[in-house]
Structure formats: C-alpha cells, structure tokens
Amino acid sequence: MIAATLPVQRPPDARLLVIDEHGAIAHAARSRLADFLQPGDLMIANDAATLPASLHGVHLPSGAPIELRLAGRSSFARDDLRFSAVMFGGGDWRTRTEDRPPPPPLALGDRIVLGSLVATVEGALGHERLIALRFEGEADSVWAGIARHGRPIQYAYLHRALALWDVWTPIAALPVAFEPPSAGFALDWRILGALRSRGVEFATITLAAGISSTGNLELDARLPFDEPYRVPAITASAIHRKKAGGGRVVAVGTTVVRALEHSAGRSGEGVADQRIGPDTCLRVVDAILSGTHEPQESHHQLLRAFQSDDVLARAHEALEASSYRTHEFGDSVLIFTHSASRQGL
Length: 345
Description:
Blueprint: E1 2-3, E2 15-19, E3 25-29, E4 42-46, E5 49-50, E6 54-59, E7 64-72, E8 82-88, E9 111-114, E10 117-127, E11 130-135, H1 139-149, E12 175-177, H2 189-197, E13 201-207, H3 217-220, E14 227-231, H4 233-244, E15 249-252, H5 254-263, E16 268-272, E17 287-291, H6 298-303, H7 309-321, E18 325-326, E19 332-336
Parallel strand pairs: 1-18, 2-19, 4-13, 4-15, 5-12, 15-17
Antiparallel strand pairs: 2-3, 6-7, 6-9, 7-8, 8-11, 9-10, 10-11, 13-14, 14-16, 17-19
C-alpha cells in the first residue's frame, strides 16, 4: 500500500475492497458502497468532531519547548478539564513520530504554558511520556484557548499542514475526538442518499476517537486508550429493531465497533476500555467499513474479530498488489463477519 499524502476526504478514484461472509474478496469503486448492503441493514457512524489536539508550548521548570497531544478524557462533560496527553520535545509533525525527541523530565505539579493556556502535570500514566494534566482556568477560556492555539494532530507522511476542516467528517457534531473518526470520510450526501434508496437505515453514535500512534513501541502496544462514548436512544432502538428483523449492523470505523460492543447496543454513556481482537465474539456489529491498515497497527487487531488471519492476510496481499492508499485519507475496506464471529444479543 502507499500513503495517502494529501487531505482529500473523498477523491473520485477512491477504492473499496470487500470481504464477504465467506472470505471472498472483491474490488470496487468506493462510490458503489451501497451496492454491497441489503434492504433492512443499519449503518452507524461516529459523529464526533475533531479537536485541534496538538498544542505547542514551554515547560516552565526547564524552559524547554514541548508538544503535547491530547489523548483522552474520562467523560464528555464540558467542565472536565483533565486530560491524558502524549508528550514530545521540540519539533513538529514534519519529523516522523518515531524520531521525535522525548520531553524534558516531567514532575508532579510542573506547569506548561501553551499559548494563552496553562496546564499542570498531575502525574504519569504508567509511562514517562503519557501524563495526566489539568488545564487551569474557567472552561470557556480553556476551550477557546484550545481552539485558538491548537492544531490537528498529524504525521510526517502528509505533504502539508492540516486545517481543522480537513479532519471533520461531513456529519461532525460534538467536538470530542482527538484524531478524526476517519472511516467517516468515505461518506457524503450522495452515498447517504444511495443507502436510503436501497432501504439501508443510517444512525450515529459519538465516541472520542483517540490517537493512532505515539511514536513509542511500548505505548503503542497499549492502544487504543480508553474512550468515552454516547449511544443515543434512537440508535439503540434502531439496532434492536434491525436485529429483530434480521437486518445487519454495519459500523463505520473501529470507534463505532468499540462503542457498540462495549454498550451491547444499549443507549447511554460509558467508557470503552475493552480490546477487540481475534478472541472477541461480536454481539452487535455484523460488518465494518474501515480504512486500510497494516497488520502491525492496533486498528488491524480489531479487524481480526471479523475474519480469520488467513483471510485478512489474503486481503492484505490484494491491497498491496493493487496499491491501495492507506492512512486516514486513503481507500476503504468493507468486511463482513464470518459465522464463527457471531454471538447473538
């Protein structure tokens, strides 16, 4: 596969690799997504908007430059100003994440100035580069400061700096994601119209999508971090109605799978803290629309709940042979579960 280097969400030549319930593989234009679904299916997407979660500033005790990438919260509460963050030394996205220098030594109570914002270190979270911090001040001022001073998190394979509108999906609503729920980049009003014409229902959840890479192998092994989510009552009702009628639930992205499987399709809020992989018996989701992922990535581990390693290996070979584009602005895969993955609600 090749890296998608430009932030174009819906290029006209976007492609879709499809793996059906029997492990058969097909190639199609992504614009034909609706052709692979059935009347009575339910597609669910993550409507989280993306925060400008990369903040540059100065570590006051040492005077050293620092970048923090907001990586998690325990809730959606607006006055909850405590975050987890991955820390780097000087530099920016133009340097590969793996090559970024570490931050200066951080201690409890250290203050970090980030434009108009000040954050206080509240402790390490099992690793010197993953910390808990709290922003000082009133909520309105803090959120305004993040909006003014922050930038979208991005990586060195991109050719230009991201603007905030580059990382908002067409259905973006509550700004709680730290990186975009990028599987939703595939959606547009024409595709949603085609789904509706085919008898496919559409609904949303909200999950605070976390970061995809920390640049540190030990920390990357802990991904995905815990992520708060909300399943609206109308979405939960649609899930149970479709299941009762034999319809399938198609998740747009790994974040939707986490929210629906953690909640068992019920309405309400929670924090998705589970790891989904080859030993997971899926209870809610029947298929996933996702970006393309390398086998070593945490997102790929979740795909192992849908199909066997042999099938996914054949799919990876097909993606490589056909030079599919990868990363958040790349092409897509649509993967249906094989029967051994299913466990009823």
